[in-house]
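Bug #2210: token dump truncated for Zinc-binding dehydrogenase?
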Amino acid sequence: MKAIIQKEFGDANVLTYADIEQPKIGDGECLIKVSYTSVNYADIKKRIGNKGQGNFPLILGLDTAGTIVETAPDSKFSIGDRVIAFPKGGSYAEYVRANEKLVFKIPDTLSFEQAAAMPTVSILSYMLLHEIGQVKMTDTIVIHSAAGGVGSMLIQLAKLAGVERIIGTVGNIEKASYVKKLGANIVCTYETFTEEVLNVTNNQGANIIFDSVAGDVTSKSLDCLAFYGTLVQFGNSSGKAGQLKTSDVHSSCRNIKGFSLGTTRAHDPLRLAPVAEKVIELFNTKQLSLPIAQIFNLKDAAAAHQLIESRNYEGKVLLKV
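Reproduced locally. Full output below:
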């Protein structure tokens, strides 16, 4: 089968279109013929060596949408089922194997393109908003990297939940109109958001801040986080660790919560099934959608990575297999 592999860490040019052996499934697994897979920023970090050790040759990719072509005995799935999944060993390939606990059926009325855009960002965003952040309608929330996949999803989910004040941050203010169309009330840059948040809240600060950037953005977030507020930390796309002190939280009764979808997939996969069911229904009924920034053929994965690294896109980037 065809796949994108890499044999060393490096820039996008280490990604190679190659023929490799088709994976074999074990107990509790199924084999999926991939239609589309999404490109996530975590793929970039893993490619360059900032996310764990490399077991080369390495196949990147977190999620996929496709059709089941083989199942283990006594499977709850059938050949021909349309699914989304978090596969084992990467998703930039024609066929992938996946633990059935991380495979979820999708209806015939949901396109593979929208299905491929949603698994990582929508399941993560739903859990961040409702389980980790426990956002209320009366909250003022800040969503960093608001034009990215998770940011786009968090804004829509917050709007759907009736949150009254949604503030999005972007690296390039030219993305402001896109973020406002998604449902944000205010859009500002990383340089100005602290002052903007304090201004619109009469110096009270935001109740919940969702931070996937870290670095300097973390300390700036704490500068505008309200008493009893929560900073939800779920990434570090800046490549730098955010700094905080115990004095940042105890006297102000504020909370710092961390969350990782990857950790949850590995250690508590059954937690994802009810969330997947909810977001699949929201997509199928068109209450949620994700703009597709661009679709690349699998062999052009390097170009897709270069687009992600440029940050000059809005929505999701997909690979067509």
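Output looks complete on our side. The first strand starts at residue 2 and ends at 5. Marking as cannot-reproduce; reopen if the truncation happens again.
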